[in-house]
């Protein structure tokens, strides 16, 4: 196996174990056994457990588009939106898609961040990166006439808040909303706040 194939194999093995056992009870030895590689191979190809979790995150958030990164293909999706309302529908679709896929992993990350400073730092950095990416979406919305009266930074913060994973967790995971109800709520909230008047 080449390096990329080894990494992919390790990431898939780790994802299954993180989801079934949690972060703390998943050891490097268990990941190695599941992936069918030596422990040292994992350290050489990926690194320690926090580094593996980061790669699991990147692969999971990208979903079927992996290994392409989310900002790259979201720019392509955004470019196809004809107007501000089309872009808001696109964002509602994206939030429903990504949070449905990411929900189990956010629980793993929360558990890991409580005990591992590297994961806690990663979680903070990813939140700030998300906010930065929403700045791009905000500029595109403004260009299409959306969000009158809001500056780009305020608009990015609003997208960040409505699309936050914890909101999805509360409404879908805790409150029991269906994914489709969540998606409709996101679109309605975005449209009420940001559609051109």
Q: Could you describe the 3D structure shown?
A:
With 197 residues, the protein is mainly alpha-helical. The protein folds into two domains: 52 residues, Arc Repressor Mutant, subunit A, CATH 1.10.10; 126 residues. Helices cover 77% and strands 0% of the residues. The chain is built from ten helices and no strands. The longest helix has 30 residues. The relative contact order is 0.11.
Identify the overall geometry.
elongated
Mean pLDDT: 92
Residue windows where pLDDT falls under 50 for at least 5 positions: none
Number of helices: 10
Give the end-to-end Cα distance, rounded to a whole number of Å.
56 Å
Number of domains: 2
Number of E-type strands: 0
How much of the sequence lies in strands comes to under 5%
Q: What quaternary form is this?
A: single chain
Topology:
Elements: H1 3-21, H2 28-35, H3 39-45, H4 49-62, H5 70-79, H6 84-113, H7 117-143, H8 152-162, H9 165-174, H10 179-194
Helix pairs in contact: 1-2, 1-4, 4-6, 6-7, 6-9, 6-10, 7-8
Search tags:
197 residues, mainly alpha, Arc Repressor Mutant, subunit A, 2 domains, 10 helices
Give me a quick take on this structure.
The chain is 77% helix and 0% strand.
């Amino acid at each position: 196996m080449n390096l990329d194939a080894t990494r992919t194999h390790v990431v898939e093995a780790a994802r299954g174990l993180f989801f079934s056992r949690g972060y703390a009870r998943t050891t490097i030895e268990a990941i190695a056994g599941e992936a069918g590689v030596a422990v040292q191979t994992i350290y050489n190809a990926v690194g320690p457990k926090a580094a593996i979790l980061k790669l699991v995150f990147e692969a999971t958030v990208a979903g079927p588009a992996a290994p392409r990164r989310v900002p790259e293909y979201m720019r392509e999706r955004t470019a196809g939106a004809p107007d501000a309302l089309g872009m808001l529908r696109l964002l509602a679709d994206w939030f429903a898609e990504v949070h449905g896929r990411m929900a189990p992993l956010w629980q793993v990350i929360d558990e890991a961040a409580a005990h591992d400073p590297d994961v806690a730092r990663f979680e903070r950095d990813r939140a700030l990166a998300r906010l930065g990416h929403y700045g791009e979406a905000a500029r595109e919305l403004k260009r299409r006439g959306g969000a009158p009266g809001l500056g780009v930074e305020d608009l990015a913060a609003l997208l960040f808040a409505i699309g936050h994973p914890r909101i999805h967790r509360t409404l879908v995971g805790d409150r029991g909303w269906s994914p489709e109800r969540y998606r409709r709520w996101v679109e309605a909230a975005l449209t009420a706040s940001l559609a051109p008047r």
